[in-house]
Structure formats: structure tokens, C-alpha cells
Design a protein that fits this description.
The chain has 14 helices and 16 strands. 40% of the residues lie in helices and 22% in strands. The chain folds into two domains: 2-220, Acetylglutamate kinase-like (Carbamate kinase), CATH 3.40.1160; 298-436, VC0802-like, CATH 3.30.2130.10. By secondary structure, it is an alpha/beta fold. The longest helix is centred in the first third of the chain and has 25 residues, at 109-133. Bound molecules: aspartic acid and magnesium ion. Aspartic acid (ASP) binds next to loops. Belongs to the aspartokinase family. InterPro entries: AceGlu_kinase-like_sf, ACT-like_dom_sf, ACT_Aspartokinase, ACT_dom, Asp/Glu/Uridylate_kinase, Asp_kin_monofn, Asp_kinase, AsparK_Bifunc_asparK/hSer_DH.
């Protein structure tokens, strides 16, 4: 069994959906196909929810109509026979009627999550109709029948596995299963989701749940690159990464893979492959538990970072001080990315500013607090970075022209993180690219 997940751009145009159909029928292996919503759809659904939350029903209606038009233009391109087109039309009608009904009832968060789920429901149903039209035997597998999260929004892997296995047992002869990424049920049995970009996470969870041979993540780029291709001219795909290296890269900014999607595959020791729909024979990136090679493999950058410094001559040396500081962040469910300490101060970074005000207020009980917004974390990722001679010196040399606000080194063997003001990011990435990768 293998898992093949296709992202928004891979299903975003009728011809792309046809390519997906070609890719899943290239071999006769048993597979679960996980689809995202068509590109742009989830953003549109978010904006419909926002308009409703603000009580702007006319605006919400306008946005629903625009999206509706998009689908009405999409399906006749996708489906050719009269019978299939009828089905496609009906699917679209059903989901847009649903959205229009929501306009009439009072809005709440549960309704918002129902709105967000429409994208994946539409994409999978339309794709399944295409398979039916072409007489490709497949089973439609609603994610809401098996994908679930608990009261802390954590996926219930054991339950998911039990449910999915028992559903699959009903179809011993079938080779192709089609399901939705992103969407799930929560502990109140309401429709929920795995957060933006969560289809990768779905794929990895499904892989772990059925113990698949591989989880393939199909996108529109040929694997994880050694630097940000939007910033640096010459980047190249990395053939092999360990789970730990991939997790650092995904977390610290490589957009190709949702960071949470590493752990289920790692836990079940299932290789993850990042592949390109447009270049299906390119090797892409393979992520496994194997640690290969030493030294720097890739760079990533994460924007929108805020640094918070707590300075306290009185308390820093006292045991329990860091605990108190961390408890404040824990209380507001805000995770910390980087930490550095000195005798008199501790600096941390966060990217979620939802509770910033309260956090700063509570930290002020311990000392003076300074906040620097608009920072970027640059992460240098590889294997045994600390052990490879001269690497840190090289990194610092590349960055000699830029003020570095924080450095985190030695936390793992895979990562050196540096915090710079956002305005230095692009130049710093280019300079590191030249200095660290020679070709
Ligand atoms: N459609 C969802 C999103 O755009 C999930 C995903 O594509 O991974 O965030
Ligand atoms: Mg994605």
C-alpha cells in the first residue's frame, strides 16, 4: 500500500486533475489518494467565513458566487460525457447550496469549520467522478469516517488506524481509494480540520495508520530545495534527508511540507517522498530515518518572528526562573522557537502574536521586557553540524555584514538558527548560499 497526496496546484486545473489520474494509474499498487482543495479554494472559504464573522452577509454572498462561478467553469473542462457532467453539476450545486444556507443561519466557529471543509469535499468528489467517467475502478473514502482529533486538537492515531483498517477490510480487491486531506472530526463529532496546509499531515497520518510502504507528497516543485528558490537563483533539490533534518527545514520555513506531517511517518518509520506532478520521473526528495553525509545540506527562513528579551539581574541565576518564564508562554498556548540565555537575560522568539500583550504584561513581573518585531529566523540544517569543523565559522563569516540578534547552536546536531531583522533576510540567504554550497 502507498499513500499519494496531491496538493492544491496539482488538482487546481482540469488538465492537472487528468495528470493526477495518469499518475495514480501508472502502476497497479494498492494506494490511498489524498487530495487537497483546488488551489485558491481554501483561501476563498476563509474569506467567506471572515465576512460572515463580521456580519457582512452581502460580501459573503458575493464571495460564494465568485467561487461558485470558478467551479461552474471547471467541471465541463474536467468531465466530457453528459452523464459525468450531470454528476459534476449536481455535486457543485449541492455544496454551494449548503454554503448559501449557511448565510441564513447565525454564524459560529463550528459553522466556519463546515465552510472550510467544502474545498476538499468538492475536489475529491469531482475527481472521483472523473475516475468513474473513465471506468477506473476506485473507492470513495470519506475522511470524516475515520480521521479524528481529540480535545487538544491532536490526531487520534490509534483510533484512526482501527477505523481505517476496518473500512479497508471491506474492499480487499480494490486498488485505488480516494479521500480528503485536511478535514476531520473533532471530539464533539463536529467537522474540523488539521489547520492550513494540513493535507500533508493527513497523508502522513493515513500512512502511519495503515503502515504503508511510502507516503508520496506530490506538489509542483521537484523536492525540498537547499535554499529558498524565490530568493536565491541557484538552488537544487536535496535527494535525501533524515526525518530530523526534514522536520527542522519544514518547521523553519521550507514551504513544501507541513511540519507536523513528519512525526507520524517517523513514528511508523515510513519513507516520505516529495515529488513533482509536472516532472513525475524526477527523483525528488526522499526522507527516511537514515542519517547520511555530514555538514550543511540546506537553508530555510521563517518570517514573522518576534523576539522577547526578559532582563532580570535579580532572578536569572535563581533556579526556577526559566520555568516561570516558560509557564507564561504555556498558559497562553504560545510556542517558543528559539531560546538564548545569558547571566542577566533570556531571549526567546515566538511567531504567534495572539496573546502577545498578556504575555508581556505577565513577564514584566520578572524584570524588564523588550520586544523586537519583524525578525526572521534563518536555519542552517544538515547532519552533525556541530561536529563538522569550521562550519560555524563559515556561517558567521557569510553573515559578517549583518547584525545577528540571536544564535542557537548545539540544540540538535542538525541545526544552527540565527535571528536577523527581516530586512536582511534575502541578502543573508544569498550570502550563505554562496559561502556554504560550492558549485
Ligand atoms: N486546503 C487546505 C489549505 O489550503 C489544506 C491543504 O491544502 O493542505 O490549507
Ligand atoms: Mg501544502
Amino acid at each position: 500500500m502507498k499513500i499519494m497526496k496531491f496538493g492544491g496546484t496539482s488538482v487546481g486545473k482540469p488538465e492537472r486533475m487528468h495528470q493526477v489520474k495518469d499518475l495514480i494509474t501508472r502502476d497497479s499498487e494498492k494506494k490511498i489518494v489524498v487530495l487537497s482543495a483546488l488551489s485558491g479554494t481554501t483561501n476563498a472559504l476563509v474569506s467567506i467565513g471572515e465576512a460572515l464573522a463580521e456580519g457582512k452577509k452581502d460580501l459573503a454572498k458575493e464571495r460564494i458566487d465568485t467561487l461558485h462561478k470558478h467551479y461552474l467553469a471547471f467541471f465541463p473542462e474536467l468531465l466530457k460525457t453528459e452523464a459525468a457532467r450531470k454528476k459534476g453539476e449536481k455535486i457543485i450545486q449541492e455544496h454551494f447550496e449548503f454554503l448559501n444556507i449557511l448565510l441564513k443561519i447565525s454564524f459560529n466557529e463550528a459553522i466556519n469549520r463546515d465552510i472550510l471543509a467544502q474545498g476538499e469535499l468538492l475536489s475529491t468528489k469531482l475527481f472521483y467522478t472523473l475516475l468513474q467517467e473513465l471506468d477506473i475502478k476506485a473507492v470513495f473514502l470519506p475522511a470524516l469516517d475515520f480521521m479524528s482529533i481529540d480535545e487538544n486538537n491532536e490526531p487520534e492515531l490509534k483510533k484512526i488506524s482501527e477505523k481505517l483498517k476496518s473500512i479497508l477490510a471491506n474492499y480487499p480487491q480494490d486498488r485505488i481509494f480516494v479521500t480528503q486531506g485536511y478535514i476531520c472530526k473533532n471530539h464533539r463529532n463536529e467537522v474540523d480540520n488539521l489547520k492550513r496546509g494540513g493535507s500533508d499531515y493527513s497523508a502522513s497520518l493515513i500512512g502511519a495508520a495503515v503502515n504503508s510502504e511510502v507516503v508520496e507528497i506530490w506538489t509542483d516543485i521537484d523536492g525540498m530545495h537547499n535554499n529558498d528558490p524565490r530568493v536565491v537563483d541557484k538552488t537544487r533539490p536535496i535527494a535525501q534527508l533524515s526525518f530530523d533534518e526534514a522536520a527542522e527545514l519544514a518547521y523553519f520555513g521550507a514551504k513544501i511540507l507541513h511540519p507536523a506531517s513528519i512525526w507520524p511517518a517517523q513514528h511508523a518509520n515510513i519513507p516520505v517522498k516529495l515529488l513533482n506532478t509536472m516532472e513525475p520521473n524526477a527523483p525528488g526528495t526522499t526522507i527516511t530515518s537514515k542519517e547520511q553525509g555530514t555538514g550543511v545540506k540546506a537553508l530555510a527562513a521563517k518570517d514573522g518572528i518576534t523576539a522577547i528579551k526578559i532582563k532580570s539581574t535579580r532572578m536569572l541565576l535563581a533556579y526556577g526562573f526559566l520555568r516561570k518564564v516558560f509557564e507564561v508562554f504555556e498558559k497562553y498556548k504560545t510556542s517558543i522557537d528559539m531560546i538564548t540565555t545569558s547571566e542577566v537575560a533570556v531571549s526567546v522568539t515566538i511567531d504567534d502574536l495572539t496573546h502577545m500583550k498578556q504575555i508581556v504584561k505577565e513577564l514584566e513581573a520578572f524584570g524588564t521586557v523588550e520586544v523586537d518585531k519583524n525578525q526572521t529566523i534563518i536555519s542552517v540544517v544538515g547532519n552533525m553540524i556541530a561536529e563538522s569543523k569550521g562550519t560555524l565559522a563559515n556561517i558567521m563569516d557569510c553573515l559578517r555584514d549583518y547584525p545577528i540578534r540571536m544564535v542557537s547552536y548545539g540544540g540538535s546536531r542538525h541545526n544552527v538558527s540565527l535571528l536577523v531583522e527581516a530586512k536582511y533576510k534575502n541578502d543573508a540567504l544569498r550570502s550563505l548560499n554562496e559561502g556554504l554550497f560550492s558549485w
